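Sequence only, no structure available. Ideas?
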Amino acid sequence: MSLENEIKNILPKKEDHSFASDLHDASKIHHSIIIHQKPEIVFSFWRDFANLPLFMKNLTSVDVISEKRSHWTVGLSYNAQATWDAEIIAEIPGQMISWRSVGDSEVEQAGSVWFLNGVEEGTCVVRLHLAYTIPGGWLAEFATKLVGEDVDSLIQESLYSLKSIVESNEFTALKAPNVMKKNNLTSKDINQ
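Reply:
I predicted one. Tokens follow.
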């Protein structure tokens, strides 16, 4: 079964076109990266939304409202910012998180991130799929590309930052103990 079909089987069916991917002008991004860390470790680090601003460029904060809802703030050029609320619409612990923006959000988006076993033992393939619209439409998106701050470039850069963090010795010493405790793992499970 293809990844696209897996996603379609997991996501709830929406008739009201509230997914950004259903929007006519939505931009779509698909990126993958191989990380030398076990998928459940990378998943747990990502799932703790307080960690996201550590590696996502321009993400100022993620305030967790409930188990499924959060409020996101992104810093933009010229001291502007965009905010939105998001909800998790599907989750497979240790493997996948899927979300969409809700309410009167400045940014409409929907996406999923997968944490899959890599070919090499102890590696993780992170696959990120995102559909979005940004305030200002195509003109704003064109302007962000001119200055290298387009969403596609930022996502790529963020995935490389994630890789750098979770493969580092500092991660093993500082973050891994909390991740291990949440997942009932031992030190043998980290960086094997």
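The chain has one domain: 20-183.
Hope that gets you unstuck.
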